[in-house]
Amino acid sequence: MKLFKYNQFLGTTTINENLDKAKKFLKERELIKRAAEELNLINPELAADLEHGDKRTVTLKDFSEESQNEIRMKLRELRLSDEEVRTIERDPNFLKIREYLGPKYIGWTYPFTYFYFVEMVSLDELFTKVDPNTKEPDNIFAKLIDYAGLLDKMPKKFDHNFIDPNIANNMEVLVDGIGIIEEYRKIKKIIDTLPAKLKSEYNKAPENLKEQMAEIAVGFDSVAGEKKEKVWKSFFGELKLDTNPVLPDGKPNPNFNKMVWSSSLKRFATMDNPIRELIKAAKNHLKACENDNILAFYEKINTCNEKYGRLGADIVFDDNGILVLEVKSFQANQFLNGHTRHCIKDSMSQWQSYVSNHNNKQYYVYNFNISQTDNLSVIGVTIAPGKSGTPDKYKSSNGTAEIYSHGYGRACHQKNDGNVADSFKSVLSDFEKQSGIDIKIFDDCLKAMTPDEIQRRERAKIAEREIIRKGISIDQIKQYVKEDGADINKDNAKALENAVEEGDYEKVKLCLELGASPNLRKGPDAPISKAKGIEMIKLLVTYGSDMTGDVFNTVLADPDALEYCLKAGLDPAFNNYLPYRKLTKGTWRSSSDIGKSYFDAFLLLLKYGAKLTDDRGRNMILKWAGEYGRMDILNYLDEQGLSKDFQNKDYNEAIMWISHSQKLPEDLKKEVTEYFKSKIKS
Fold this sequence. Notes:
6-stranded antiparallel β-sheet; alpha+beta; two-stranded antiparallel ribbon; 10 strands
């Protein structure tokens, strides 16, 4: 009878065959258990766990370090017979694992065996679990098969070497990896839909925007039942029959009666920050799609009015499933009508162009009697005072109100932004008949601005002159916005900028809550550029602020704050790698007090993609590090092999650079010069 020693299973030769590795593991667990039993090391608690199935096996980790050493010594004496090995390999649960995996996935035998015996993952969770709602497979094995072509997206490769016995929960690592794949598939569906320009912008987007895009992907995937596809198409587009016989310029439409791709995604490509605007629009779209009935929408109206006061929305008409709102501000429109494709809820400048820069009113007509995926379920219309000569189909019966003409047609758009100005009156007539209401919506609800309202708008203009002044109180801001109707974004959100400069966190928060945009000013003029601490920066980022290079000065000496900003989109190479100059200077004050570099900041810049060569091909890092005597940085470049591409001319230029500098004492300047000379190849 042949006997097997423990160290034959643990020999120096790596066993790469996956099934063999699983069998090897089973033999190891049996030998460890025997050794522990013979040494009387299995305490009552561990024995009870094994007896009651709370543990399926023992490992060395179950024992103290001293006991582990005893077990290892004992293992040298133990043997397994041929019959014992066969019995071990016929373990019923191991055979089930092999059966579930089959010959095609035998390469996964060892990790699944480990999950079951060591980490106590049930066979149901591993192989047989199904979703109780969809009845679709919802187990680890099914997901791995489904994602087989994407497993390289996981942080750790899933193969026979996946298991790390030194960590307590390898299954958690796998589940997290599967979660990453699931998010990747959802986000990939969106990315595959984007036009080329937006795909490029997404690839360049900072980490926090990509994370938000992943949340958007989950949101669309989470829409329940039959609504999911319709919600997706209403935002990202779909193939539709082109029913327009002529183009806007009057020429014949070559796509008439053909299926064409219809999507409004391209409009984001022309915006300053297209990915952020796309995310914002998608979030609004998803939120609004949650309004399954009029009660839910009422709650949203109430919330809107609590948040924005006079800049919220007024209910003009509500009966038999027909709701007409007058929307008073861009912020309210974003809040209430994010599920439309209307430009006036995506862009402040468009809102101003259509509404607030004129004596116009913005109305929305909602029909809850038809499917909310029907584009006519929401119609936005901009109403201006009536003018003589306007065709009857665009104006009220008495001629006092008309659909605003902005030079590109009349401002009347259904949910998907399709223009319905020409048919608006007939659509409203159908609504009136089908819902049984006895009014004329256009005549009775869609009123133009009255003289009194024009006066109130003048009052708002006065309040807007005050709201941009420095030093006003929180109560004054509330009054100007909520009572007087001032635009919180007057003069590119000057009120927000003032609050940030004052360092008043609560005032800044109020401005943001009232709808102030942190991105109307750019570069050094942006509010975030004037933030004096990381908490203010975080507050602004939370409300969508873009990062600017000027933030670097605020967080340079705080690694955690700097990393937060880099994750949020701070460019590590702004102003042609000026950050390197700042971090090499560090705490330098004079040649007699050179201080230290911000070395941690240097490491973070490298981590987040900063290159050593600037846009003009210069290796300024050598000059700046040498100028301030930062041998920690220079040595790190050598140790990490980052200096291998530096040329003799780079070192010669650095020597010349520091020879003219007065920032170092002579002995240190000499040391740095000698270092550079030593790097020059003969």
